[in-house]
Design brief:
single chain, alpha/beta, Aspartate Aminotransferase, domain 1, Aspartate Aminotransferase, domain 2, 2 domains, seven-stranded mixed β-sheet, four-stranded mixed β-sheet, 17 strands, binds 4'-deoxy-4'-aminopyridoxal-5'-phosphate
């Protein structure tokens, strides 16, 4: 089909990594027009945590559409919205003793980030916000200012302001607690950092290279916020909705953000949907201040409610994610042992794991070859050097193993080609089972 070259903008990105025309998808599989099957370890960049066309969610959606349920409702009160809010409150917020107001923003992650940053600035009456090296919060101007990646920043066409970037956990090497520096510059009135309204942070940096901050570092960030009168915004757009093994990525860490952004897998079905959770005392919006036509994607409310009912009513799903996360971690450790710690290292939490190939070209070669062998997997990080395991959380144990086997095969071929690995060494797939 020539139409993509003819009239689709040059801005395309994922389509370049996976140059096929896709036509169907089910669970952890995608199919192209020729009927070739691919295992999906990309999962809509973390939007398909429950797989493609999840049958349980699809049924609720089809029933709703069949009954002429409302699709678009601006921000009108609808039955679907009411039921989503009730379920979210009863099954997600209350059991976790979380007291938050829910703001429906425009349906992208970036729009939720914009809303959170605007609100924080308004509350504290200070324009500056602190973000972290390698952070990613979206590409609209406000969110882009808080995004590190030079490729994205360069496209702004205007100065990106109102943000001071400080070192994320591990940025200055092991054993250096970068929150000490943060505390210092906020204490020193001549540090050159304008007193900020808030700190925005990912608990695991997704686009930045699957770097997981330690629990103690996150707790220290919270302490710094309290000490210096800053709001804490956790951007859980990629790390949340179960990816790290719990609904929110910061659960059981004794962290109480002032605001939380959620999007990506919130609808469960890949439908556009984003929210900001706001501590009640901070919900000082005036009516319509953060408006938007698509704040009422009722189809997303229906599938989001069903997702929570089905997957988040008890601990079973969480346990499964943790078990699969441990499996991925162990397989990555085997790869590192086999191919050398200098060449590879691991990072991440739960089913949000990365294989750091140090070299972007190497990572790229591996993922390209993996695609030829039927596995869709992407890279992230400053130099695209981290292979990002983002398969649906619902993937079967067998397909999780199959996908990693394909990746290992690709790593082996490329490492032999690049003389990183000796062909003589006996090679076999670990006959692992996913077990607790
Ligand atoms: N925040 C985080 C942590 C993200 O990972 C992303 C998307 N990768 C965004 C914000 C922006 O979301 P969107 O692409 O839907 O605007």
């Amino acid at each position: 089909m020539k139409i993509f070259e003819e009239i689709e903008s040059e801005v395309q990105s994922y389509a370049r990594s996976f140059p096929r025309i896709f036509n169907k998808a089910q669970g952890e599989y995608l199919y192209d027009l020729e009927g070739n099957q691919y295992l999906d370890f990309l999962a809509g960049a973390g939007t398909l945590n429950y797989g493609h066309n999840n049958p349980i969610l699809k049924k609720s959606l089809l029933d709703y559409i069949e009954a002429d349920g409302i699709t678009h409702g601006l921000d009108l009160h609808t039955k679907a919205k009411g039921e989503f809010l009730t379920t979210f409150n009863e099954k997600i917020l209350k059991p976790r003793k979380m007291d938050y107001m829910v703001q429906f923003t425009g349906p992208t992650g970036a729009n939720a980030v914009e809303a959170a940053m605007k609100l924080a600035r308004t509350i504290k009456k200070r324009p500056n916000i602190i973000n972290f090296t390698n952070g990613y919060h979206g590409v609209t101007l406000g969110a882009l200012a808080a995004t590190g990646n030079v490729h994205h920043r360069a496209a702004a066409g205007t100065p990106l302001t109102g943000i001071s970037t400080l070192p994320y956990d591990g940025y200055l090497g092991d054993g250096i607690d970068t929150t000490a520096y943060l505390d210092k510059v906020l204490t020193d009135s001549s540090s050159g950092i304008d007193h900020p309204a808030a700190i925005i942070v990912e608990t695991v940096q997704g686009e930045g290279g699957i770097t997981a901050a330690s629990i103690s570092w996150l707790q220290n960030i919270q302490k710094v916020c309290r000490k210096h009168d800053l709001l804490l915004i956790i951007d859980d757009i990629q790390a949340g909705c179960g990816r790290t093994g719990s609904f929110f990525s910061f659960e059981k860490m004794d962290i109480e953000p002032d605001m939380i952004t959620l999007s990506k897998s919130l609808s469960g079905y890949g439908l556009p949907f984003a929210v900001v959770l706001i501590k009640p005392e901070h919900d000082i919006w005036k009516p319509g201040e953060h408006n938007g036509t698509f704040r009422g994607n009722n189809l997303a409310f229906v599938t989001a409610k069903k997702t929570i009912d089905h997957y988040w009513s008890d601990e079973l799903f969480s346990n499964e994610v943790r078990k699969k996360g441990a499996y991925i971690y162990n397989r990555i450790q085997k790869i590192i042992t086999r191919y050398g710690e200098g060449n590879f290292s691991s990072r991440g939490r739960g089913m949000f794991q990365g294989l750091n190939c140090v070299d972007g070209e190497l990572a790229n070669k591996i993922t390209k070859l993996a695609f030829k062998k039927g596995l869709m997997i992407e890279t992230s990080g400053a130099d695209d050097h981290v292979i990002k395991f983002l398969c649906p959380l619902t993937i079967s144990d067998q397909n999780l193993k199959n996908g990693i086997d394909i990746l290992e095969d690709a790593i082996k071929t490329i490492c032999i080609e690049k003389n990183i690995f000796d062909e003589e060494v006996d090679y076999f797939h670990e006959d692992y089972e996913v077990k607790s």
